[in-house]
Design goal:
CATH architecture of the largest domain: Alpha-Beta Complex
Shape: elongated
Radius of gyration: 28 Å
Pfam families: Carboxyl_trans (PF01039)
Biased composition (Polar residues): 36-59
Low-confidence stretches: 1-8, 10-61
Helix content: 40-55%
Structural class: alpha/beta
Domain CoA carboxyltransferase C-terminal: 322-557
CATH class of the largest domain: Alpha Beta
Protein name: Propionyl-CoA carboxylase beta chain
Number of domains: 3
EC number: 6.4.1.3
CATH topology of the largest domain: 2-enoyl-CoA Hydratase, Chain A, domain 1
Mean pLDDT: 86
């Protein structure tokens, strides 16, 4: 999570009680408190035991059998959790039920199908996955948590049936789905039956996509075809240790290519958070990863047919101080870098910003914030990295985030300071045309309120794709010192006045002085934002101190914006 707001601060702002809940639940001997059978600890008698001791002889034959089954089930549940603690604790991992305690508001988890897939008489408590519903900041969320202590958390027919049933219920209820992944993959003993279940889960995940938020937490191994379950969800969260994702493991890689590589080097959390971009957040540990999931859910609606939750907000002197600070953050020299996070902090409520994919494609910044208590998505170029240019990775990062905001009714605030798409043969060969076009598709198709502010420079194609008026933004603003043009002055002069510069060189004149004079003329006549203002592509020129005020006013104006079907079609065929 961004250093601008800690998880603890976010909990306080949203009224959560996660820290107290977490400390209470991880005390030794507290694991049985969440036992779904009603047991309150190993030494606490069950209600059926108490009734029997009081001489309850009603229906002695059937009653005794029923009570015996209940006692056996309760004992199995306690033994299963003790066994899970022993196995998972030795690896520095929590049990599935301990993780659920961290995810949900205290005492809110309701399990479904506790003993489905088990064999009570045979001594097996249930399947290798726990399913149910609970509350996150008071709102209902569906969850399935794989239990690695049961047959390595592998997925078979019983586990697939439980997960699919949960997803069907979540779709019917219109509530988010959270997956806690810790599994050895498909159960080999069940063969194609296990693979069939993955196919069913894939299909249901696609059905839920864009309808309800879906978050996957990788808290153990996730390999083979199983990786595509989380890959289809909105956000993937991993941890610095124990989390692994890969299609083919180290042994297969070595056999096929001769390369020797560890699990972490191949598909650990650090790799997927910073190199592949598969992970959207890298948690310090399980508690941090789960807290991030809770925080993100606080910004999202339960489903696409609802508006995001709103929070109380009171303005004060902090906003005035932040507005004044904006005037000093961005250097006048367009080649001097600065941290765009400082700009974001001065625009959003309380300076709180929750980044997504913080470690990946760092020339672009995306994440969640609130403006006057209303959740929004923020997209910005980061001048600290490659001058804020768009490359193949940052293009996909921006595009997918805008798509998610549009799916779940979050307005998008875009802060622009970019020299253009990153040049080079490596970018062309990596597919900058195909992958860069994804940003166009995301903004052009978005129907949520779109507000764009040009902070300093917006050149060429990147000006168009980063939420320009032409591509569909509702309100566009620019700071007085901003530059908007096809090319920067130096690049444009090199093309437009190529012959003049060559002639000056041949005549022995000062080429650099001529270049600077021509560049100054180009900036004065072409690069400044006045032309865009006169054309109506910029709605207003604002001082930096007015940025938050302009954003707030725009969102108020656009609050009643509604979606509309422009053409009758199944769906677009955007580049993938």
């Amino acid at each position: 999570m961004s250093a601008m707001v800690t998880a603890e601060e976010k909990r306080r702002k949203l009224g959560g009680q996660a820290q107290a809940r977490t400390q209470d639940r991880i005390q030794p001997g507290r694991g049985e408190a969440s036992d779904p059978t009603g047991s309150q600890g190993g030494s606490q008698p069950l209600a059926s035991d108490q009734a029997r001791s009081q001489g309850n002889t009603e229906n002695p034959a059937g009653g005794r059998n029923a009570k015996g089954a209940i006692r056996r089930a309760a004992q199995l549940a306690r033994e299963a959790e003790r066994n899970a603690r022993a196995k998972q604790g030795a690896k520095g991992k929590g049990t599935a039920r301990e993780r659920l305690d961290l995810l949900f508001d205290s005492g809110s988890f309701e399990e479904i199908g506790r003993f489905a897939g088990g064999d009570i008489e045979g001594g097996r408590a249930g399947a290798a996955v726990i399913t149910g519903f609970g509350l996150v900041y008071g709102r209902k969320v569906a969850v399935y948590a794989q239990d690695f202590s049961v047959r390595g958390g592998t997925l078979g027919s019983a586990e697939g049936a439980k997960i699919c049933r949960l997803m069907d219920q979540a779709i019917d209820l219109g509530v988010p789905i959270v997956a806690l992944i810790d599994s050895g993959g498909a159960r080999i003993q069940e063969g194609v039956a296990a693979l069939t279940q993955y196919g069913r889960i894939f299909r249901k995940t696609c059905q839920a996509s864009g309808f309800v938020p879906q978050i996957s937490l990788i808290l153990g191994p996730c390999a083979g075809g199983a990786v595509y379950c989380p890959a289809l969800t909105d956000l993937i969260i991993m941890t610095k240790s124990n989390s692994n994702m890969f299609v083919t493991g180290p042994d297969v890689v070595k056999a096929a290519t001769g390369e020797t590589i560890s699990m972490d080097q191949l598909g650990g959390g650090q790799v997927h958070a910073s190199v592949s971009g598969v992970a959207h957040y890298l948690g310090e540990d399980e508690a941090d990863a789960i807290d991030y999931a809770r925080t993100v859910l606080a910004y999202l609606p339960s489903n696409c047919q609802e508006e995001p939750p709103t929070y109380a907000y009171a303005s004060g002197r902090a906003e005035q101080a932040a507005a004044k600070r904006l005037a000093t953050i961005v250097p006048s020299n367009d080649r001097q870098p600065y941290d765009v996070l400082d700009v974001i902090s001065a625009v959003v409520d309380y300076g709180e910003f929750v980044q997504v994919q913080e470690l990946f494609a760092r020339s672009a910044v995306v994440g969640f914030a609130c403006v006057e208590g209303h959740p929004v998505g923020v997209v910005a170029n980061q001048p600290l990295v490659d001058a804020g240019s768009l490359d193949v990775d940052s293009s996909e990062k921006v595009a997918r985030f805008v798509n998610m905001c549009d799916a779940f009714n979050l307005p998008v605030i875009t802060l622009v300071d970019t020299p253009g798409y990153k040049p080079g043969s490596d970018q062309e060969h990596a597919g900058i045309i195909r992958r860069g076009a994804k940003v166009i598709a995301a903004y052009a198709n978005a129907q949520v309120p779109l507000v764009t502010v040009v902070l300093r420079k917006a050149f060429g194609g990147s000006y168009i794709v980063m939420g320009s008026k032409a591509i569909g933004a509702d309100m566009n603003f620019a700071w007085p010192s901003s530059q908007i043009a096809v090319l920067g002055a130096q690049g444009a002069v090199g093309i437009i006045h190529r012959r003049d510069l060559q002639k000056a060189k041949e005549e022995g004149r000062d080429v650099d002085a001529l270049r600077e004079r021509l560049a100054a003329e180009y900036e004065e006549k072409t690069v400044n934002a006045n032309l865009s203002l006169e054309m109506g592509e910029i709605d207003a020129m604002i001082d930096p101190e007015q940025t938050r005020e302009a954003v707030v006013g725009s969102l108020r104006t656009l609050a009643s914006k509604r979606r509309r079907r422009i053409v009758d079609k199944h769906h677009g065929n955007q580049p993938l």
